[in-house]
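Repro:
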Amino acid sequence: MKKLSLNGIELAFERRGRGVPLVLIHGYPLDHTIWYPVVPLLQEDFDIILPDLRGFGESSTPGASSLMVDMSEDIAALLDSLKIKKAAIVGHSMGGYVTLAFARGFAGRMLGLGLVASQALADAPEKKIARYQEAEHVLSHGVGDVAADMSSRLTDNPDLQAQLKNLMMRQNPQGLAGALQAMAERQDSMQLLQDLNVPVVLVHGLADKLIPVDRARMIKKVVKEGHLTEIDGVGHMPMMDAPRETAEALRILIK
């Protein structure tokens, strides 16, 4: 992986393919490798940028807590370093929250927006409290409990569960805690999406145990140009459980 010093951190990323710039942002508590199944299906038409968000993968973990806006500014700084003026920005789950923060701060740099197994609503008060409690638990006990709990909630595929558990076990507890706090403090983005003037692609599994498909349907109703792909029998990891359907949906960003 390549690394760049941006905004006080070392941001790691991979770059594959050629064509329209496309940033694929991973969710919590994962890293850029979750996108590998769709990359071969898109790299003939897209210049694919795969960052590890601050605190995840091979990127460094900041000493202070971060917000979604900080992560979105990392993406903007990465594009600056790569001399890319505009790109399609796609986020999975928490990566969708980063994508929405990017749209809030850098809408003029977006060719399109994609949300994969994500949502636009802010946390309810009880969910916000739960995130802060989970952050404290991760800092005290490490990532093992999170990995054990989440692997079966992300997918019903036993092989993928094992792969994802191993991936989560490699993450930095401090990075996870910071991300949990950032998610708890994120803004509601429904009005932002209503005002957005770029194509919005939504991909959601009908068997998602973490974010119900109704959240994607809500977005589809309010955006000016929305494309929703619902995938039967797929949970929270469409890019891994259904890479062809996911890639085909994302291809709409260049049509």
